[in-house]
Amino acid sequence: MHPFTLIAFATALLLLSGCATAPMDGGSSTDRSALAGTASKGKDGAATALTRADAALASGNLDKALFEYLQALNKDPDNAELLYKIGNIHDARGDTQLAEAAYRKAIAADPRHASALTSLGILLARQRQYVEAEVQLRAAVRAEPRQARAHNALGVLADIDRDYARAQRHYEDALAQAPGAPMLHNNLGYSRYLAGRHAAAIAAFERALELNPDYQLAWRNLGLVYSRQGRYDDALQAFGKVQARPQALNDVGYVAMVAGRLDDAEAFFDQAQRQSAEYYALANANAQRVKVLKGEH
């Protein structure tokens, strides 16, 4: 896969990260046990268990937090917020089926729980179940129009559909709620790049980097746009913030090749080969592709 395809995928995954998956019906104790094994009811009330769970979660102890949330759930089995938090823990642990089960249960208990709707939508989008993901995410913004995560994820889905104008509206709606989020500026920039709005894309990436100068994905995306514009020195400088120069030379060459600037591409691949044996094979393979495109093979 071409490195800039990876950039696009990495962007989408960042957009969709933060949640976590298997339909769940009914409200039996069997269902609740399936969320994370059997939890004893204990002697404490739901409120006490919830306090302990929140404290454990804040300290990063997911196992203890999950146990305490389940204790609280035994006392209050239809508590949507509890189910949502349980889903988040399963998602963080990579237990996507259990996460989806918990999110769906939370939504059954409260159909307007915007965070659960958002998390389920994001989870489904990560599984490429885009149609249902969009249904859940749209329900989230109906329930809470200022749900930045939902707008962000809807932006990703719109970019996948190549509806860049709609995507950018969603990113802007998300930024209205979280203007200091570098990821959102990066995502807006990438959508602008896909739409051919290169100057506007650069402005968004630069804003992301003002907020977080170490944001690697924004540096890569900035290098990508500069390469597309033929601003090679700027591109190499941007790529150089996050990768070795031979790799930067190869990547700039690849963008030039895709843009049809074959002589430029060949020159960059040649430099990459000469500067590093590590990148010789990749840059050489790309150089051979240029020769084919130029009709020399």
UniProtKB/TrEMBL annotation:
It comes from the Bacteria. This is Tetratricopeptide repeat protein. The keyword Nucleotide-binding does not apply. Residues 1-22 form the signal peptide. TPR repeats lie at residues 46-79, 80-113, 114-147, 182-215, 216-248. Keywords: Repeat, Signal, TPR repeat. The keyword Repeat applies. PANTHER family: CELLULOSE SYNTHASE OPERON PROTEIN C, TPR REPEAT-CONTAINING PROTEIN MJ0263. SUPFAM superfamilies: TPR-like (SSF48452).
